[in-house]
Amino acid sequence: MSKTILIVDDSTSLRQVVSMTLKSQGFDVVEGCDGKDALTKLDGRKIHLIVSDLNMPNMDGLSFVREVKKLPNYKFVPIIMLTTESDEKLKSEGQQAGLKAWMVKPFKPEQMIAAVNKLVA
Predict the structure, then answer these.
(1) What are the CA-CA distances from residue 17 to residues 1, 44, 74, 75, 108 (Å)?
(2) Cα separation of 104 and 72, whole Å?
(3) Percent of the chain whose predicted confidence (pLDDT) is above 70
(4) How far apart are CA 115 and CA 80, in angstroms?
(5) In sequence order, what are the residues at sequence separation of 6 or more whose Cβ sits closer than 8 angstroms to the Cβ of residue 15?
(6) How many CB atoms are closer than 10 A to CB 115?
(7) Is 2.40.160.210 the CATH number for 4-120?
(8) pTM score
(9) Buried-exposed string 41-50: b where 16+ CB fall within 10 A, e elsewhere
(10) 69 near 99, Cβ under 8 Å?
(11) Contact 97, 69 (CB under 8 A)
(12) What would the pLDDT profile of 33-73 be if each residue is shown by its tens digit?
């Protein structure tokens, strides 16, 4: 059974790159264009992993992570933050919010695949 990954990013092109990378490994992909939109995708379907951007309109990545962690069905879903930010303070805020990994853009596809496989194994 293939695993489903939710990709949250306000950049369509980035969502496409991540989506293609993951689909090439046999994952199913659901996309959200910001935190608010992504929360509507958490509608009871099984999501095995979330890859989220940090800086987005409507709801940023950290707020989104905090909201996900309040949802009983999704609070244990691992979340990777994929962002241009590499600030240690933000990283520690992310860890406190419940992030499993922090990846800095631009990312290498094999890096993404390795992180995803580690978290959904």
Answers:
(1) 23, 26, 25, 26, 11
(2) 29
(3) 100
(4) 8
(5) 7, 9, 31, 33
(6) 20
(7) no
(8) 0.96
(9) bbeeeebbbb
(10) no
(11) yes
(12) 999 999 999 999 999 999 999 999 999 999 999 999 999 99
- Residues 81-99 have pLDDT tens digits of 999 999 999 999 999 999 9
Q: What is the 3-state secondary structure (H, E, C) of the chain?
A: CCCEEEEECCCHHHHHHHHHHHHCCCCEEEEECCHHHHHHHCCCCCCCEEEECCCCCCCCHHHHHHHHCCCCCCCCCCEEEEECCCCHHHHHHHHHHCCCEEEECCCCHHHHHHHHHHHHC
Please classify residue 112 by burial: count the beta carbons closer than 10 Å to its beta carbon, then call 0-12 exposed, 13-18 middle and 19+ buried: buried
Which residue has 């990283």 as its token pair?
91
